[in-house]
């Protein structure tokens, strides 16, 4: 075996060196490629000599030149047009009018482990072209998807370098890995931050269970397949894409100014019969606007340079990217350097080998996420600096701990750098064993390292913000993953029968290791001092941990179609996962089946004029989720710092058992049905696609509370606990047309409706309370219970404000005071307690919708995208979390109760008391929003000018993202992603505990192609 | 090159493919068998003497936990009493006001935290008690380790029974469905189990340890705790005999009351049992005692200022009693170590002196400040006062006065002008004097609340704060636990 390999690789190497093809009589053929309809020229049409590896592309004016044998046949291909084959017949000039492929069905769709003609697809797969992603000038490829695909909900986080939350067809998983799987050129990732959006050629979003089933083990939350740019045969094309932008906070929340603040704080003191804290509120004037002080307009630059091309036997694409993004919070900066190289070599006629590699480095100057809370709470009476340039100290104003920080000092003394390095990609080979049988093997790897270096210097900024012993922390996490894939694809046509059979095998291993270290008393005169070795020998600490998972899988798929009318697809995947090995049966099986009927291809439809395309399809599939720790059934020892005993000052390591493990744990699986309709009208100028789906997550894994008297470290036991259902409807309509005058435009709308419901749960009628992140007093704001959506907001219903003591004594809340919330006594027992809580709203959007348009006339292009969500609630936790003298919003100040008759909706300044801040309807707000997601206007320089400059394309554009946001929500942003502080769980989704502020980005951009 | 045989290449590749697939298939079994990372499987534990030691270390370490020494314990055992206020700024942790005002309901988080925290101790003890007997090891060490576990289990159940009345009694690791969902045992059954543990512990535990083991439970600790448990059941003869024994074991009061609580007097001759805490720089998880942090002077960075002495307590001391300053840090005064106590408007004006760690003591922002302060659980003066009270109840006023005087004598610190010797032999008056002495001597040490209830005076003493008889003698059983039990757990009356 070894000898064969050696021989093989020597041969392969030799083939790179020698050009062994014989050439027939070569001639130079020139010509122009135009649109058969409007006669405009088409740039970047691929032209290839049939049966040979020679190829080129049309330039910006549609012109091409190619050397080919006089007897050859040229193949013209371009997305959206029917491929044409033109025999040369000794001609040296061949002008080709292309006919637009009215048959959208001719399009090829990337699906799991292969491609399919769109006509053959029986599931729900959405495709986004790379140019649509790069056009948005978005720095993260996933956020560019927002509004593009029905049923895909993207919640941006906003922080530079942070990944957005993406949910496909509703929340299906609440524990472990709740994210989608990204497959980039065959390698699996949890997020694709390492990719420059401009490197993406195509994204396929697999939505229904039948399309997903081929990714069995990791498919439960959806799969996004990413294909990156590759070279095309022909001269090297050098292109540069750059944007220069400014990010500016939109919809800022206005906080109370210093006079208002002093007034309202005095009201708190007065209500407790205490002397006012501020003698003369008006003396403070406007005071400090902490948001204004800490936030800024921030620049963002993104540059990408790529060189692509190909020779007789190889193609390549090299792309370099550089992103420099400032955060809208001062001192926050994120830099990302990306390099991606893809090459493919036709080693021998039947054998291709290639590789895709990415190297990414990012360097982030982080901020302390408490800053978001501090900007909200800090007292505007405190100046940023005193006259002597020392920090304004809240302690000097007697503000206490709730508003005890000077946010500027927080920014100034926070020193944390995060560096991420990633080297990833794959090597592959494709062998055409027979004309119809191809074997492909790929070995992919992902090596990444994340380093977080934090340093807390010795300083004294304010009474509360100081540090007397410096601390250096260096944390490093490494990921070493590999994945091997082998597939065998048989593709053939027998008369009217089309058959594709796929069989494959994969194995993967994901290993993570982290090591965290700390040292005290590290000096700091420069960054060069920041080594643990310079700190105290005593108290230096080191801890580490890791994770290891393996999986082995086998899969197969059959696609069959008859006369392009009747379609049948079936697949099966078997996954073995180490997580379940200790169970005795690590294997799970994930089948799928799909069928379609292309009615428009029936003979009886040939005479009708209404439908240019009509297809109905239905599918069913099963997918799995293995996002649990390895061997959850294996009981392990707890050995933690809290178990260290001290005798006579000496530390002794304690160990014990403080957990229980489930006797058995099964796959979390999800089965889904999808019924779809695709139709095209008016020569496919109008196309629609509608889908109904029903997705059932079964045996969802998460921890449920167990009796505290078991004495566990955490009173939870994980296991298969519940079934959820997501049921919904998606609709997409596209209109695209060209007028005689050369005006091209497209308008596309999509709409998704999803309803989430718990269909069974082991706790039976007992609800699971959750959603405490960001709330005060240990309150839990959500409830998950049988028959209702996951993580609904739950609390008291407010029906007004107590105006006076008389109203209090006549009510069920005897311990309330005037100005407090009056809660509805739902069960009428005369006591307000937990039993009076009701459902208050759902954090998962019911409706997602978007309208995407693009217009082009002559050299100008314009696009305008609108996106929104509806039927969603947000829990505005910021208002109620108070420990002392936190600031209030101006809205609250103006509307608050401050004496009988002043308000019956907003409570008094005592909103932070336990009773008032208990989850209630006041804090639950509508989170609906509609926004101008992206607007862009571009101008492409005329071709005459460009040919003079020997350039193919120069386009300048201006773009604005999120410039207009309409919402009624009283917080900063209606997009509530992961909390800035604390952990995210889908059971606590939609709780706004100081999210990253919403901002608009205005870019100027340049695309140049040589 | 042209004559290269493609067929041969295809054959070769087919072999490679088949080989790869076969290879991966044959490896599958071991390939998927992955060891838990950075975690020791439980089946490898409880095998050696070191494992036995480690299991007991975990018991002692866990006594520092948040639930054992911070909010949950202070809420349940201190803030409700007349000696303490919630403290901190008005709205900070305002849920603790429910203890101040007796508006605690069964959904309260601190009650749950306390419940959970005690059962965490109990589980760690049961792990040791169930597993160590099977280990081959030094038999003397084995029986001592078991006795130490019994002591902590008794201590935890005592805290539970005081706070809740009868509770679920797990004396082994729960294994069967019935044990997973047991009904509450009666208060008497819980007390009986506690006393059994303490008897067994006292029979084995040494009177003292070599220096390296200082801090472990001693025989004196088991006897003193047993005396307290007996006192809560009014078993006066037992209290008297147990305390008499402890009084022969070499304990003595330090000359200066204030210094008893300082770092240099940890595990002193006055200490009967302390929770051992250290500042262990760089290891946050092992320097985790927040006992001092949550109560420390708020104007100092890192201190929170909860559980502050009430005005009522400040007024309860006899004129000139040095214990007033030893118990309360008054804003505007300086400590003997030279720290000036300051305060922002709205912040407390009095702080608990007992967890006070001099400001200059080492700390860093990564660890809870004051994490080195041991928690004094039982002091010798408590034993003396129990002895006095039992003697008085048994009509032995002579011994009662003598034991009481030992406490007052030290408090006097040589100043004959203050704290005159109590001389009354009237049982009621002497009882009142002893009650008063307990209040001032053990102030802010989480003794007062249940002590007053035990004395049957709670309605009179705490009534003005909202305490109601037939309800507030115990706290509510956490509602989540009742829900999880599907009704097997019953709620206390009035909640």
What does this structure look like?
The complex is a heterodimer of chains A (1010) and B (495). Chain A is mainly β. Chain A has eleven helices and 51 strands. In chain A, the strands form eleven sheets. Chain A has a 22-stranded antiparallel beta barrel. In chain A, a hairpin with a 2-residue loop joins strand 22 and strand 23 (437-456). Chain A is globular and about 100 Å long. In chain A, 50% of the residues are buried. With 495 residues, chain B is mainly α. Chain B has helices at residues 6-32, 49-62, 66-69, 71-79, 97-100, 109-131, 139-164, 177-180, 187-204, 219-232, 236-246, 291-295, 311-314, 322-327, 380-393, 397-412, 427-441, 448-454, 458-462, 479-484; strands spanning 84-87, 271-275, 306-309, 328-330, 350-352, 375-379. In chain B, the strands form three sheets. A two-stranded antiparallel sheet of chain B has the order 1-3. In chain B, strands 2-6 form a two-stranded antiparallel sheet. The radius of gyration of chain B is 28 Å and the shape is globular. Mean pLDDT of chain B is 92; it is low at 1-5 and 21-28. Chains A and B meet through helix 1, strand 23, strand 25, strand 26 and strand 27 of A and helix 1, helix 2, helix 6 and helix 20 of B.
């Amino acid at each position: 075996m070894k000898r064969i390999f050696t021989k093989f690789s020597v041969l392969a190497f030799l083939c790179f060196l020698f050009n062994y093809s014989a050439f027939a009589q070569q001639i130079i053929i020139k010509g122009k490629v135009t649109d058969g309809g409007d006669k405009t020229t088409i740039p970047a049409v691929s032209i290839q000599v049939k049966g040979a590896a020679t190829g080129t592309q049309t330039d910006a004016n549609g012109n091409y030149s190619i050397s080919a044998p006089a007897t050859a046949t040229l193949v013209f291909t371009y997305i959206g047009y029917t491929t044409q084959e033109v025999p040369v017949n000794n001609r040296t000039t061949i002008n080709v009018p292309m006919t637009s492929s009215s048959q959208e069905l001719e399009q090829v769709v990337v699906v799991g482990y292969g491609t399919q003609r769109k006509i053959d697809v029986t599931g729900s797969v959405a495709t986004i072209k790379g140019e649509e992603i790069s056009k948005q000038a978005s720095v993260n490829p996933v956020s560019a998807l927002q509004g593009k695909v029905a049923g895909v909900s993207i919640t941006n986080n906003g922080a530079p370098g942070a990944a957005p939350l993406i949910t496909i067809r509703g929340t299906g998983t609440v524990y472990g890995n709740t994210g989608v799987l990204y497959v980039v050129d065959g390698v699996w990732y949890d997020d694709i931050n390492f990719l420059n959006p401009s490197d993406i050629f195509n994204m396929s979003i697999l939505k229904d269970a039948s399309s997903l089933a081929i990714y069995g083990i990791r498919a439960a939350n959806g799969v996004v397949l990413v294909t990156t740019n590759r070279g095309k045969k022909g001269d090297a094309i050098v292109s540069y894409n750059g944007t220069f932008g400014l990010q500016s906070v939109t919809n800022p929340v206005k906080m109370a100014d210093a006079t208002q603040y002093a007034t309202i704080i005095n009201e708190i003191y007065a209500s407790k019969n205490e002397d006012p804290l501020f003698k003369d509120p008006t003396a403070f004037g406007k005071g400090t606007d902490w948001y204004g002080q800490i936030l800024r307009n921030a620049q963002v630059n993104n540059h990408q340079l790529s060189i692509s091309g190909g020779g007789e036997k190889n193609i390549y694409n090299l792309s370099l990217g550089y992103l420099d993004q400032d955060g809208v919070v001062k001192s926050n900066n994120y830099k990302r350097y990306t390099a991606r190289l893809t090459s493919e070599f036709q080693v021998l006629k039947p054998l291709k080998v290639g590789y895709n590699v990415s190297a990414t480095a990012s360097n982030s100057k982080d901020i302390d996420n408490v800053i978001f809370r501090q900007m909200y709470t800090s007292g505007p009476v405190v100046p940023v600096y005193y006259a002597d340039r020392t920090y304004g100290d809240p302690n000097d104003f007697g503000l206490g701990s709730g508003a005890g920080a000077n946010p500027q000092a927080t920014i100034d003394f926070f020193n944390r750098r995060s560096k991420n390095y990633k080297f990833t990609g794959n090597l592959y080979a494709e062998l055409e064993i027979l004309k119809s049988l191809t074997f492909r093997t790929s070995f992919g790897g992902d090596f990444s390292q994340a380093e977080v270096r934090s340093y807390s210097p010795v300083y004294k900024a304010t009474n509360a913000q100081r540090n007397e012993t410096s601390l250096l922390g260096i944390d490093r996490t490494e990921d070493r993953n590999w994945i091997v894939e082998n597939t065998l694809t048989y593709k053939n046509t027998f008369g009217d029968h089309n058959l594709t059979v796929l069989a494959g095998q994969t194995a993967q291993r994901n290993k993570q290791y982290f090591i965290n270290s700390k040292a005290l008393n590290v000096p700091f005169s420069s960054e060069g001092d920041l080594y643990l070795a310079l700190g105290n020998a005593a108290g230096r600490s080191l801890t580490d941990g890791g994770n290891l998972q393996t999986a082995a899988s086998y899969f197969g798929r059959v696609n069959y179609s008859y006369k392009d009318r009747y379609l049948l697809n079936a697949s099966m995947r078997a996954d073995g996962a180490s997580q379940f090995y200790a169970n005795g049966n690590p294997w799970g099986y994930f089948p799928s089946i799909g069928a379609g009927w292309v009615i428009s291809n029936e003979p009886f439809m040939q005479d009708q004029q209404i439908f240019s395309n009509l297809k109905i399809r239905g599918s069913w599939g099963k997918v799995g989720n293995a996002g649990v720790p390895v061997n959850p059934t294996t009981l392990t020892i707890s050995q933690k710092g809290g178990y260290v005993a001290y005798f006579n000052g000496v530390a002794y390591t304690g160990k014990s058992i403080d957990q229980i493990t489930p006797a058995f744990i099964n796959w979390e699986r999800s089965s889904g049905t999808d019924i779809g309709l695709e139709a095209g009208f008016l020569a496919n100028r109008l196309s629609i696609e509608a889908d109904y789906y029903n997705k059932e997550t079964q045996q969802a894994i998460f921890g449920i509370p167990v009796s505290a008297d078991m004495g566990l470290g955490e009173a939870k036991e994980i296991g298969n606990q519940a079934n959820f259902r997501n049921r919904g409807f998606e609709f997409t309509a596209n209109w695209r047309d060209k007028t005689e005058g050369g005006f091209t435009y497209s308008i596309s709308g999509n709409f998704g409706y999803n309803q989430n419901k718990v269909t069974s749960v082991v706790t039976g009628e007992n609800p699971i309370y959750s959603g405490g992140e960001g709330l005060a007093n240990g309150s839990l704001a959500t409830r998950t219970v049988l028959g209702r959506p996951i993580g609904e907001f739950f609390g008291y219903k407010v029906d007004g404000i107590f105006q006076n003591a008389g109203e209090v004594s006549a009510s069920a809340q005897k311990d309330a005071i005037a100005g407090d919330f009056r809660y509805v006594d739902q069960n009428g027992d005369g006591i307000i307690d937990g039993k009076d809580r009701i459902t208050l709203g759902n954090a998962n959007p019911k409706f997602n919708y978007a309208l995407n348009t693009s217009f082009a006339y002559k050299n100008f292009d314009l696009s305008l995208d609108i996106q929104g969500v509806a039927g969603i609630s947000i829990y505005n936790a910021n208002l109620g979390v108070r420990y002392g003298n936190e600031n209030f919003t101006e809205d609250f100040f103006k509307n608050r109760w401050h004496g009988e008759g002043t308000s019956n909706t907003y409570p008094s300044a005592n909103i932070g008391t336990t009773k008032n801040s208990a989850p209630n309807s006041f804090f639950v707000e509508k989170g609906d929003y509609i926004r101008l997601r992206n607007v862009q206007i571009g101008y492409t320089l005329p071709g005459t000018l460009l040919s003079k400059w020997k350039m193919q394309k120069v386009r300048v554009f201006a773009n604005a993202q999120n410039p207009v946001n309409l919402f009624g929500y009283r917080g900063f942003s209606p997009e509530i992603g992961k909390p800035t502080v604390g952990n995210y769980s889908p059971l606590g989704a939609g709780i706004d505990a100081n999210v990253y502020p919403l901002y608009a980005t205005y870019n100027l951009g340049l695309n140049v192609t040589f | 090159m042209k004559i290269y045989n493609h067929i041969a290449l295809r054959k070769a590749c087919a072999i490679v493919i088949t080989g790869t697939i076969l290879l991966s298939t044959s490896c599958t079994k071991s390939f998927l068998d992955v060891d838990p990372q950075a975690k020791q499987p439980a089946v490898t534990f409880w095998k050696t003497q070191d494992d036995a030691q480690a299991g007991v270390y975990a018991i002692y370490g866990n006594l520092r936990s948040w639930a054992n020494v911070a909010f949950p314990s202070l809420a349940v055992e201190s803030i409700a009493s007349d000696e303490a206020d919630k403290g901190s700024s008005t709205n900070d942790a305002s849920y603790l006001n429910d203890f101040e005002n007796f508006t605690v309901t069964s959904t309260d988080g601190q009650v749950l935290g306390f419940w959970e925290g005690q059962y965490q101790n109990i589980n760690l003890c049961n792990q040791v008690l169930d597993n160590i007997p099977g280990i081959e090891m030094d038999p003397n060490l084995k029986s001592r380790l078991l006795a130490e576990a019994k002591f902590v289990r008794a201590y935890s159940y005592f805290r539970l029974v005081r706070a809740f009345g009868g509770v679920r009694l797990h004396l082994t690791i729960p294994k069967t469905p019935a044990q997973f969902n047991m009904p509450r045992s009666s208060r008497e059954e819980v007390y009986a189990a506690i006393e059994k543990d303490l008897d067994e512990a006292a029979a084995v535990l040494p009177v003292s340890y070599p220096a390296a083991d200082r801090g472990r439970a001693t025989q004196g600790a088991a006897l003193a705790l047993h005396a307290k448990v007996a006192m809560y059941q009014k078993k006066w003869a037992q209290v008297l005999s147990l305390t008499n024994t402890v009084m022969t074991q070499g304990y003595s009061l330090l000359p200066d009351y204030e210094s008893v609580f300082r770092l240099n007097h940890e595990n002193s001759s006055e200490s009967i049992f302390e929770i051992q805490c250290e500042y262990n720089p760089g290891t946050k998880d092992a320097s985790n005692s927040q006992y001092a942090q949550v109560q420390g002077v708020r104007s100092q960075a890192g201190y929170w200022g909860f559980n502050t002495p009430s005005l009522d307590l400040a007024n309860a001391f006899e004129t000139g009693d040095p214990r007033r300053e030893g118990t309360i840090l008054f804003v505007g005064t300086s400590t003997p170590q030279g720290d000036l106590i300051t305060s922002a408007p709205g912040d407390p004006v009095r702080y608990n002196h007992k967890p006070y760690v001099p400001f200059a003591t080492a700390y860093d922002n990564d660890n809870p400040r004051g994490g080195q302060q041991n928690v004094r659980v039982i002091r010798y003066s408590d034993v003396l006062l129990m002895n006095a009270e039992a003697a008085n109840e048994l009509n032995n006023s002579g011994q009662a006065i003598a034991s009481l005087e030992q406490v007052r004598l030290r408090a006097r610190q040589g100043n004959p002008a203050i704290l005159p010797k109590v001389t009354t032999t009237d049982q009621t008056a002497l009882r009142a004097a002893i009650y008063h002495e307990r209040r001032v001597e053990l102030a802010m040490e989480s003794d007062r609340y249940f002590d007053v209830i035990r004395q049957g005076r709670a309605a009179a003493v705490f009534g003005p704060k909202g305490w109601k008889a037939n309800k507030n003698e115990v706290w509510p059983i956490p509602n989540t636990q009742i829900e999880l039990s599907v009704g097997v757990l019953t709620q206390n009356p009035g909640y």
